[in-house]
Amino acid sequence: MKYRLQDSIQAGVKYQAMSYNHLAFVNCLQGNCEEAIQNLREAEKILRENHEHEFERRSIITYGNYAWVYYHMGQLTETQSYLDKLEMICKQFTDGSRYTALIPEVYGEKGWSLLTSASQYYEEAKECFQKALEEDPDNTEWNVGYATALFRLEWFSGTPESRGPSQSMKQLRRVLELDPDDTVAMVLLALKLQQFNQKAEALKLVEQALQMSPDLPYVTRYAAKFYRSKGDDGKAVELLKKALEITPTSTFLHHQIGQCYRNRLFQLLKYPGSKDPRNPAFQQKAELIELCKYHFGKAFEHRPLSSIKAQLDFAAIRSLNSEYLKAEETYRNLLKLENTRPENKQQICLAAGLFELHQKSSESNAISYFLQGVKVKYDSKEWRNCHKNLEKIANRRLRRNSRDSKALGVLGLLHQLDGKKCKAIECFEKALEFDCHNEEYLNALTELRLST
């Protein structure tokens, strides 16, 4: 998080006071209290320069952070000084407490902090921006934050935002009405338009954004994603490497570069010569594999708890290169993760199951991982894929042996999850004929009978 916040400040993001506030929090947690105070001074300076007439409203978070950091430093006189300042400001607001106020500026900054943290907080971030916009509907900052939260939530397959018409597309157009020069909003809107096959308008927006902000990493990285999706990996890598010069530790950039090289690798693998050690394509394949491993590895080097997609891509490349023990180690570490989005947990289980099925030829282990995925009760593409694979394996096993109790138990569980109680009871009863002491099947059957 510290690297990302420093990168965003270095890259010249619009709302730097928020980034400095968040960075102060992180520095204080790390014991770097003097550095945290310096961060807060920068935040205060930016607020005074850019929001002279709204300074008091916007300083609530910063003054609260000053009090918090000085308290941890043992400087209680300074702590009380900032608490007194907060109390004077918050008296102006009827819905405030002594030291804070539920006003748009507070909700908005909380929303940005949550968006900067991790994906499991995106829903709460969205709610914060909605509350800020209820009182201040034409505020550009809160509209940008709301659009960003919607945009990110729409990329997850299990969220309500991912279903039906795109809300973020409408919201990004609203941002551009308020600020026609917001080039980040331009490229985000272009990605949504590309997703819905409105290619001409999308390309026009990307080209315009790159012309207006050629050196802004947040523009170049999303423009690169656009070109990669368009099939132009060369242009994408060019833009990503340019952005990487400014923010060299960016997980997003390294992951995107790795995906570009992976696209080239997959194209090369279609060529028969890539399997012949005497053919130049064979050496090229080895180089692309190493590039993929390097960039995917860099993408989660500092974020092992949150860069899940990069780790799954890393494991897949290891597997492709017959490095099965290394791939297995990555899956094992990912399966231990807690407090991640349900789609992520399901995706990990799905990938680990497919690895066991295809690389290790272990139907039993694959079933175990797919079952973990479907037991995460969340309707997503990943859940449906775990379900589908379990169904295929169970039916295949039953064609080989109609007395396979494990396959019957799996089908029973799937029917139970699908709400097909009669079919589930039938499967569990059959499973118990061949495995009469199985507690899992007995418990499931008892539960089903009691609920019918």
Can you give a write-up of this model?
- The structure is a single chain.
- By secondary structure, the protein is an all-alpha fold.
- It is 75% helix and 0% strand.
- It contains 24 helices and no strands.
- The chain has helices spanning 2-10, 16-29, 33-50, 55-58, 60-73, 76-90, 104-117, 122-135, 140-154, 167-178, 183-195, 199-212, 217-230, 233-246, 251-269, 280-300, 308-320, 324-335, 342-358, 363-374, 381-400, 405-417, 421-434, 439-451.
Task: State the secondary-structure class.
Answer: mainly alpha
Q: Biggest sheet, open or closed, and with what strands and sense?
A: none
Mean pLDDT over the residues: 93
Total count of strands: 0
Spell out the helices and strands N to C: HHHHHHHHHHHHHHHHHHHHHHHH
Morphology call = globular
Give a quick rundown of the structure.
With 452 residues, the protein is mostly helical. It has 24 helices and no strands. 43% of the residues are buried.
